[in-house]
TrEMBL record, chains A, B, C, D:
<feature type="binding site">
    <location>
        <position position="49"/>
    </location>
    <ligand>
        <name>Zn(2+)</name>
    </ligand>
</feature>
<dbReference type="GO" id="GO:0008270">
    <property type="term" value="F:zinc ion binding"/>
</dbReference>
<dbReference type="InterPro" id="IPR036874">
    <property type="entry name" value="Carbonic_anhydrase_sf"/>
</dbReference>
<keyword id="KW-0862">Zinc</keyword>
<dbReference type="InterPro" id="IPR001765">
    <property type="entry name" value="Carbonic_anhydrase"/>
</dbReference>
<keyword id="KW-0456">Lyase</keyword>
<dbReference type="GO" id="GO:0015976">
    <property type="term" value="P:carbon utilization"/>
</dbReference>
<protein>
    <recommendedName>
        <fullName>Carbonic anhydrase</fullName>
        <ecNumber>4.2.1.1</ecNumber>
    </recommendedName>
</protein>
<feature type="binding site">
    <location>
        <position position="108"/>
    </location>
    <ligand>
        <name>Zn(2+)</name>
    </ligand>
</feature>
<comment type="function">
    <text>Reversible hydration of carbon dioxide.</text>
</comment>
<keyword id="KW-0479">Metal-binding</keyword>
<feature type="binding site">
    <location>
        <position position="111"/>
    </location>
    <ligand>
        <name>Zn(2+)</name>
    </ligand>
</feature>
<dbReference type="Pfam" id="PF00484">
    <property type="entry name" value="Pro_CA"/>
</dbReference>
<dbReference type="GO" id="GO:0004089">
    <property type="term" value="F:carbonate dehydratase activity"/>
</dbReference>
<comment type="similarity">
    <text>Belongs to the beta-class carbonic anhydrase family.</text>
</comment>
<dbReference type="InterPro" id="IPR015892">
    <property type="entry name" value="Carbonic_anhydrase_CS"/>
</dbReference>
<dbReference type="InterPro" id="IPR045066">
    <property type="entry name" value="Beta_CA_cladeB"/>
</dbReference>
């Protein structure tokens, strides 16, 4: 594995900075977390996008949130075909092993994945339709969401689709029997959020008004 | 979707705290990130575990790292079957669209997923072998790694397997043609790390010594 | 005092969040509270337990409740020996200087202190009988309460003892001459509560039925 | 116990409000806290004063902080006389049973207990010198602190004494063998804070400069 390189210096330096400050301040707590295991209160499903910081927005400290991040914060529908399903595995582990109290799906503005999904579904990005495109195949999860926004004026569609991604994921979450059971027994609650990167606002899906409302 | 609930108050309060401090201090930067798009320097593949904080360890600010988090920080092998592959999609997007300079696989101690993998492969957790277990199917990616550590004394096996998870993922990364090409042309470098949660130490895989060495 | 360290960063960030939101919203009120002094309506005696939140349960805003918290929400009997009595001092200050209208003793389920008291009195924790055990000596206040529940079936004893802790404290409160006088003149009323942490229910001691009844 | 009354209606109403909102939002988490026990990260020693809200300042959520509150946030010196010592019991439980990572002493401005201590030590409140005064006997813990500030101009003395109360408490904490041992082995860190109620500022004691510095 000669292709594996040493870490760039800037990352090494940041690590040493963390070790000398945050780690040192919290040594006893980290020791306990290692010895006693994690007990997170919530799972958060967020985008890989470098501009979305769950840990920053919610002041998430070590041990608080179980965080899965994938492109466009998507949950695929329940499919028990024996294949590798990273997102489904994370949800299963959070709900059945860690017994988190909340699953939060956090969408965001200016999402590159959603933009690609829009273009693919609108016929503007045929390369994403190709079987060989992992991004295209992944964003295919959102095709039912696209159908719901396709009649909107073009300039509104992408933003609407970002919010649909949150709703489709929440719907898909409920197709997992262990999620449905936990929700129905009151052990788990589901939440949908959308963050505007530019103005820092946060909207949540309100079941009553069936819309996203600013927090 | 009556099952979707409003966000718990403690998270709402934390968000307002972030908005009034971190966001307000960096408003202009967030505005630019939204308008001009992200330009992350590296992709980090890390575990969902609530005790592992990439953003904390590397002082990751908004816009710096494209972060994918799944159980046990695994990369599955390249498989072009047209199915949903969240991890592969994230890698494809990072390498081909965002053109990150580094991909870092960050493993960690006390990993519940790796422990489950060990027990499954050692025949101690037959339920994980079941086709219906998402965690089991996901951890199956690590079976070749288990074979390499199975001859070790039992008390050393899990920790060794945590490090194997980093190596298996690095090997699998190279099965993606676009990764291999970018590595070979010098546009991309791969890195393997393992973090001890309790003592805060960080080890990196060194190609020369073929071992993990403390940073 | 080289052993005194700076506050961990996560607490500093939380403080800044509070300062920028709750404090800023209520600045004028905090200013008045500082200038004119406190005028709390009630004193609450509660447990140190991190799961019992007087301020949350009663929506207690700044300036409303004078809150004393000790292990197992105990009031020791009136003893005028010139020693340091933190609980007695707090009661004296609340009743004679602040002239609160109510003193509320708030017990709770799953109380570690009460569990220790039970084990000590049942002969299962001899180390707590030791003169050197502060927890043991403190829980000794509850020995009369244990005698009243010791004939119950074992599975009912700890919960019964948690409620006895409220009653013993109320009885001990009346041994303070200034409490008794204030109660008899109608200036002060005493209240006994027990909170179930898990189901969120709250029971109060009703003098008429001589039992705890759900609110 | 005919003197025990039912809870005032305003508190009953607040409880029902909490039950219908905060409790309902976090039901699953409260259930887990009850079943699995508390695991607080820090102990906070704060004043009973109704204007000082640890839970508000640090956004303290259920399960996070073990909170002891007494008059003037004092820690008496280690005394193993077999008497009831509520503060010492709370510290013993937090450090030896719960194994918290931090003990924070939080002082504050406009403290009535400290004002009384000042007046007593300055000969202006002879009634507090009386053996029968619980507040006087409790504040006696602070007499060594008064000696250190008595040469200051009168208008500065009370505020200085409020900060001395934090330092005396930190010094007394170290007289407890189990605290000293935990500090020296790196399992526990001690912190001193002083909050200005009126302007919301927070100062911490910095060992290097031997002074309180704004956070």
């Amino acid at each position: 594995m000669q292709y594996v390189k040493n870490l760039p210096t800037y990352m090494v330096q940041r690590y040493h900075g963390w070790k000398a400050t945050t780690y040192t301040e919290n040594k006893a707590w980290y020791r306990r977390l290692a010895d006693e295991g994690q007990r997170p209160r919530a799972m958060i499903i967020s985008c890989c996008d470098s501009r979305v910081h769950v840990t920053s927005i919610f002041g998430a400290d070590e041990g608080e949130f179980f965080i899965h991040r994938n492109i466009a914060n998507l949950v695929p529908p329940f499919t028990q075909d024996g294949d590798h399903h990273g997102t489904s595995a994370a949800i299963e582990y959070a709900v059945t092993a860690l017994k988190v109290a909340h699953v939060v799906v956090l969408g965001h503005s200016n999402c590159g994945g959603i933009k690609g999904c829009h273009d693919m579904c609108a016929g503007l990005a045929p390369e994403l339709e190709d079987k060989s495109s992992f991004v295209g195949r992944w964003m295919d999860i959102m095709r039912p969401g696209y159908d719901r926004v396709s009649s909107l004026p073009e300039e509104d569609r992408t933003r609407a689709l970002e919010k649909e991604a949150v709703l489709v994921s929440l719907e898909n979450l409920m197709t997992f029997p262990f999620v449905q059971e936990a929700v129905e027994s009151g052990r788990l609650s589901l939440h949908g959020l959308w963050n505007d990167i530019g103005d820092g606002s946060l909207q949540q899906y309100e079941a009553e008004s069936r819309s996203f409302v600013a927090i």
